[in-house]
Amino acid sequence: MGSAADWHAFLDEFRGFGGRADNVMQRKGAFGMGLFPIDSSKPIDLFVPDELLVPIENITLQDGALAIEDDSAFPAGYGDWFRRYQANYSWGAEGRENTLAFEEGLKALPDAVQTLLKRHGLYNAEARFPGKDPDQELLQRFLRTRCINRKGRSVIMPMIDLLNHAPSAKPYDTSGAGIAVAGMHDGEILARYNIFDSIRRLIAYGFNIQEPMAFSVRCKLQHQNHQVLVRPGVSDRPMQPCKISLEDELLVIEQPLLGSVRSPKVPRTLFLQACMAHEGINANELFDQIQQYNTIALVNLMRALEGLDEPVAKQLRTGCLDQLASLSHHFGQRDDLLKASEPTSSSAA
Fold first, then answer.
1. Helix pair 134-146, 198-205: axis angle to 10 deg
2. Among 60, 126, 245, 265, which residue carries the largest CB count within 10 Å?
């Protein structure tokens, strides 16, 4: 990272391409390198127009440096600026080093831990970082932590991708002709990246933070006369009932929300709503079974991590605790929502 004068000269170049970066500086904070207001009594303004967003498939490594492979569609000089940006403030600053350390730490976890992570649909070393082309695999892992979906494409948003995440922060403003973050900030400028839960945030991004929602791990269980498979992951519609279907006598449940810090009555309510269309299910009992499975899975994972002092093992233990805390936020149900969801004679037809 260069001097303050280098930073401001760099921002002047960015503005020349049509971007905005006002009242911001990069420095270390509680979450590592991040952006802060120069003067907290004034608003900050960050904006990356669509014309400066870089699709991840157009990013490559050139002699170890991250660069735009084909910059002909961008303003003259932008390809050179992007390469220097990555070298001095992103990939080359600590992005490559941190990504590599985390991926190597995950792969070095004992077999017992690896088996549990794979069984629960949380991490598979062979699929994620097999080591056949380490440089390209590392690049892809780094890009996954920095990209955003914009108009159906995964893109890098220079300057804004330097912001760290906070679940309580505002999301990026994508309503205009680009991506923006603006407003007053007393301390570090933070943004909400997307919806994740604590354990998946850690494994996907490499940092610990307690998220306000918890979703299920992969699990198979018996419920009354049904074999049940819960497919893991984070729903992109977390406040809607999960999808439940019957596949060759197997009851398949897709990404159920199990805990919500802000709305603890919602997880069970959504699950009950999802089960209304299916006969032979005791929805309350099945919800409790999935909850129990997740709790035991996380406890067993923590037991497998006991005695391990490596940084990633410690992070994973913290991730399990954060996940358990969010998972525990469920009680009661919203009877008003359930009543509104009950099928009528006309809708049942």
1. 130
2. 265
What is the enclosing helix (H) or strand (E) of 219?
A: strand 219-223
Q: How many C-beta atoms lie closer than 10 Å to residue 294's C-beta?
A: 25
What b/e readout covers 254-272, taking b as 16+ CB neighbours within 10 angstroms? bbbbbbbbebebbbbbbbb
Q: How many CB atoms lie within 10 A of CB 75?
A: 13
Q: What is the dihedral of CA 263, 269, 274, 280, to 10 degrees?
A: 150
- Tokens in use for 118? 């794979």
Q: What pTM, to 2 d.p., does this model score?
A: 0.93
Question: Which are the contacts of 295, defined by CB distance < 8 A and separation ≥ 6?
Answer: 324, 327
Number of Cβ within a 10 Å radius of residue 186 = 8
Beta-bridge partner residues of 178: 49
Q: What is the DSSP letter of 97?
A: H
Sign of CA dihedral 49, 50, 52, 54: positive
If pLDDT is split at 50, 70 and 90, which confidence band does 279 have?
confident
Q: What would the two tokens of residue 134 be?
A: 């380490």
* CB 321 within 8 Å of CB 295: no
**What single-letter DSSP state applies at residue 173?**
B
Confidence of residue 248 (pLDDT cuts 50, 70, 90): confident
* DSSP code at position 171: B
- C-alpha radius of gyration, the chain, whole number: 23
The stretches of the chain forming alpha helices (DSSP H) are 4-16, 78-89, 96-107, 111-119, 125-128, 134-146, 198-205, 266-275, 283-304, 311-327, 335-341, 345-348
- Distance between CA atoms of 73 and 68, rounded to whole angstroms? 11
Mean pLDDT of 169-193: 96
Contacts of 260 (CB under 8 A, 6+ apart): 212, 213, 214, 266, 267, 326, 329, 330
Q: What is the largest CA-CA distance in the chain?
A: 71
* 318's tokens: 């913290």
Answer whether 44's CB lies under 8 Å from 163's CB. Answer: no
